[in-house]
Specification:
Length: about 270
Amino acid sequence: MNEAVNIAKRRGHQGISGMVNGVLRNVLRRKEELSLPSDLPSAARISLAHSHPEWLVSRWIEQYGEAVAEAICIANNEPPSVSVRVNRSRTSREEMIAIMKEQGMEVAPSPISPDGILVLSGGNMALTKWYKDGLISIQDESSMLVGAAVQAMPGMKVLDCCAAPGGKTCHIAERMEGRGQVIANDIHTHKAQLIADQAERLGLTNIETMTNDAAKLSERFAAESFDRILLDAPCSGLGVIRRKPDMKWTKHPAILRRLTRFSILYWTPCVDC
């Protein structure tokens, strides 16, 4: 509520902020009396009930159906969990869980990724000795699935076209047990350095970073140079609303249309995250 009042002050004047404050306080006092009209269309009902833009809800209903669209909105409003990925080249998930529990942390194995651990309580993982020593990395469970989907095996040659900041690249290299080669490309030099820093922290020597436009990599490498290629192309970002809730209000259908045209021109047709 305080943020809404501050926004009203910046966008309007003191009178508007007072009105916003009064309306919101009245809502809080009479919250149990509030209900949505029973005759609202599905998209409008879900939009109001779960605080999502109606255009986005309509899009999801069209793609997935009403029930799934509402489930997505509900999930987006849940607090995100903290998850870490075990560096399997240095330890196992079972060993890491045991160590963390010995330190009084509440953790559980990820039901989604065999390399993931859910941290239910325990503080900032980036400040732990395990992180500094390269035993773990902070990564969403969904991102861990990408490294597994690549199915890179020891000895393979893999290209990650848009690799920064390096989470997926390093996961692939870990699964390759330090054998073979992972070429980690990014168009920005400073971002390529982020990948190199992560590789050094994790003790991964099979990663080589480079800076190039991914759309021009065919000029750099001959056809069939790689056993696997990962392209994490520009996308809508709508799959991470739970961690970035403001995103749903800053996106617009025009942005998705531009991404789609870009993808058709350079890569393959875009699908919402």
